[in-house]
Amino acid sequence: MAEAELAVAQQVDDEAELVERTRAGDRDAFNRLVERNAQKVFRMARHMTRNDQDAEDVLQEAFLKAYRRLDQFQGDAKFSTWLTRIAVNEALMRLRKRRNDKTVSLDEELTLGDSPMQRDVADDGDDPEESYERAEMREILEDAIDALAEGYRTVFVLRDVEGFSTEETAEMLDLSISAVKSRLLRARLQLRDKLRRRLKGHGREKENHV
Amino acid sequence: MGVKKKITCKSFLDDMSNYIDGDIPQELRASLEAHLAKCPECWVLFDETKQTVEIFQSYNCHPLPVDVKDRLLGALQNQWGEPKK
């Protein structure tokens, strides 16, 4: 795509517009929805499943289903919210299947594959050369979430990482509002215990980074 | 307005998450803040928990690997029945 065309495309880079254009047969429009949402969906799926391959499967299935079901998308929610719901359902399905599948041991589940630091990342841009300190801290945060029990982990990721409301989280996970709130509190307190020693250092590192 | 709710360390903990989220009625907020002003233990717990939430929001955990993204785009191309460009 030429630079001028790209600039114009960015001006109409609105989700609703992109959905309409996809419905009209414009596949580039759907690719732009992928560009905008893939990182978020992958992160959510990876946090939920704690497994790189499952996260990739969830990511692909969510986008393929979203494309096939685009006619069902009502437009009263944001596309990204609708897409995330599809992905959350996919991830929950895999977790249920894994629970029923006795051949997967907890140790296997926690084998995380390549270190994220060793992989090329399709980052969305503002931190192309992540410093060693930030990469190290990021891994500590990822491990801390991985160590939470599933019920707490999923609520924490949807509420505090992905920014869904209490009501949206309750609906997606089929939980009461009070259950979401109490799980969120417990998740936050457990993570705070794990990260306590790091918090003061984070403040300084954050100031230096900006 | 009603009588101010008496805040204990236990009841502060029950409301702390809502307080961090700003999802709390004005009067209860004032009572919680009055408790925080005189209880260093609860203040530290609140401050550290708030920082914990903020730190997760300030890091891009699990950045999307390039190969994963390429395979996603490939899967979509397959669905559309086109060779990948």
Query: Tally the helices of chain B: what do you get?
Result: 4
Give the overall shape of chain B, derived from the CA principal axes.
elongated
Structural domain tally of chain B: 1
Helices and strands of chain A, in order, run as HHHHHHHHHH
Distance between the termini of chain B: 67 Å
The CATH homologous superfamily of the largest domain in chain A is called: RNA polymerase sigma factor, region 2, helix turn helix motif
* Total individual domains of chain A: 2
Strand content of chain A: under 5%
As a percent range, the share of strand residues of chain B is under 5%
**Gross CATH architecture of chain B:** Orthogonal Bundle
How does this model look, in words?
The complex is a heterodimer of chains A (210) and B (85). Chain A is mostly helical. Chain A folds into two domains: 1-113, Rna Polymerase Sigma Factor, Chain: A, CATH 1.10.1740.10; 124-210, Winged helix-like DNA-binding domain superfamily/Winged helix DNA-binding domain (Arc Repressor Mutant, subunit A). Chain A contains ten helices and no strands. Chain A has helices at 3-11, 15-23, 27-49, 52-68, 79-100, 106-109, 132-146, 150-161, 166-173, 177-209. In chain A, helix 9 crosses helix 10. The relative contact order of chain A is 0.09. The model of chain A is unreliable at 104-119 and 203-210 (pLDDT under 50). Chain B has 85 residues and is an all-alpha fold. Chain B has a single domain, classed as Orthogonal Bundle (Arc Repressor Mutant, subunit A). Chain B has helices at residues 9-20, 26-38, 40-58, 66-80. In chain B, helix 2 crosses helix 3. The termini of chain B are far apart. The mean pLDDT of chain B is 89. The interface between A and B is large, with 49 and 35 residues.
